[in-house]
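Regression check, glutamine case 358:
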Amino acid sequence: MTEAYVALEGGHVIEGRGRAPGTARGELVFTTAYTGYEESLTDPSYEEQVLTFSYPLIGNYGVREERFEDDRVHPRAVLAKELTEDVADWLATEDVPAIDHLDTRQVVTDIRDGGAMKCGIAVGEDVTEEDALAELEQCKAMSEHTDIGTQVSVDEPVVHGADNDGETVALVDCGAKGSIVDSLIARDAEVHVLPYDAAVEDVEDVDPDVLFISNGPGDPANYEQAIELVREFVEDTPVAGICLGQQIVAEALGGTTEKMNFGHRGVNQPVLDLESGQVVMTTQNHGYTVDEPGDHLEVTQINVNDDTPEGLDGIEYDVLTRQYHPEANPGPEDTLEFFDDVLEMADQRAKRAVPADD
Ligand SMILES: NC(=O)CC[C@H](N)C(=O)O
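Current build output:
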């Protein structure tokens, strides 16, 4: 019989039904997303995390590659109340341990009370509680994954939309979701995807209209090179960022970030635009947040639930960032116009740089 154990920080072990074998460890988090499991499971931002779905049935519309955000599953393991055969088989093929028939309400309550925590997972014919505890023992805190970018980034620059006539984007790939690239290409941008540790010269070679910092896993403070790029280019080049990108931009420009208790992960996080007064529903997946924006950035959007910064604008620089995922996938498409706004910012800047001949 397949055994399946989750060892929680503090040593409490819970038992479930094994659906995909293996051992794993990671930061235990939950998402309230009720659809979009293929997109969430292939989102590189979940690297080094163990993902619990709070929605009880996961997999009821199958598994289709065209909905993937990357070419592999990123969470180290998956927990749910009920996983369908399709999803369990997919995770087994990907060597990602999966457990269901757990009381996920209790797991979510534990995370809400204790914060995102370390955990150890063991699933297999003859694994024991001790195997899960041994994984927990070796589990690192998220901030200790100091070079996590190397696990999720391209190794070499890749160009998408080379025939496009629009803005040239240098996208620093800290674990970019495919939909971010797709959203830019769909707006006629030429997208140069650069490694997370790209040098200043690599960006200069692209000569971009906008420097765009992607989403990605882990602690923003560990992306020192991307922070440096923002500092280096922000005076002369518009800068944009999504999720980790917003945090990196804040770190670069005198702001601060902090770890949240259990973060925001779901597809119905309400965000208020402070200027228009409009509230939109957003997709989110983050465990860190901007604390202080610093003197060069202004908070333009906030989370309705806890007032954390959701959008930043540059005060004297051309900067536009979002903490949520405007590209959706999964989730509501209320915020896709962020990409239009970023490309418009780049276009306006280019026009200012080359005064019209009259
Ligand atoms: N989706 C993301 O980019 C996540 C950003 C960062 N790793 C966080 O957890 O806050």
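Comparison notes: The chain has ten helices and 20 strands. The chain has a mean pLDDT of 97. No diff flagged against the previous build.
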